[in-house]
Design brief:
The protein is mostly beta strands. The protein is built from 1 helix and 23 strands.
Length: 330
Amino acid sequence: MPFPSPRILARPFLLVVFVFGLCHGAAVAQCWQQVAYGFRHSAGIRADGTLWTWGWNDVGQLGDGSTTPTSVPQQVGTGDDWAVVAVSGTFDLALSAGGLHSAAIRADGTLWTWGWNDVGQLGNGTNTPVNIPQQVGFDSDWVLAVAAGSFDVVLNTNGKHTAAIKADGTLWTWGGNDHGQLGDGTLVDRNSPAQVGTDTWVAVQCGALHTVALRSDSTLWAWGYNTYGQLGLGNLVEGHTPTQVGTDTDWWQIVSTDMHCLALKSDSSLWSWGLNNYYQLGFFNDNQNKVVPTHVGSATNWRSTAWRTPCWVPALSVLSARRNRRGAGV
């Protein structure tokens, strides 16, 4: 079965998840179109387009207007047009949740963020935290992907940068930039989105302090912190602008965790690089770090990769379905 096009996919997550017993203990199945989880909180979008969060909430990362944690899903506002969302701690083209800030795209292509904001990771032009979703600018073409920095257990730091791709394939980053993870050639934090170069991108992933992305020509690029070789460039030198990883032009899917990366090529082979202290790169009896993408085994039937849990979510299909549903008045 062939892969979906990478031009509408950037990271795996559940298309449909059935959760039982959420309604006051009743054995009622709830249909979720997307779910995500991170270091301290989780989030999900139900089939009806409503957004729900649960878990820790010390800085408003649940987006419910409070800083009170909850152990069961609570709806965020009353909107039913949530389509694509991501938050610090893990990424998703459609939904991710984790550290201390969150981001989401609605069916109308607008981008919304909430949570911690000490270095501008919310992209709203301030460094003030907010505990409800707040729109980022006025653009309505954020439809391809959104990613937020992951939690790093080695450095004990939350990822504080965010990245997103617009409908025209342009890549935008904002937030913390102490290791060049924004890719703009500086080490200056930004509290509003800034375009990275002029290339056309189809997928982006944020690690704790680095970023990796796929261009439309299926080449792989990386920048930011590189102490463990997580950029895959064959060295340990951090980069402040996108640098191509090797010369291959058949990269298909990428996943970036705190300090290591996984990727699939178009032949369904699996590759990994970066920190390997807990054998997370998948090499038998080998926990040495890898500074270049290294083939994992010999299998060529891999379909997805992910940090923690996987699957594919076609963002544009989700957005299209949401828009069609609302346009039909249903």
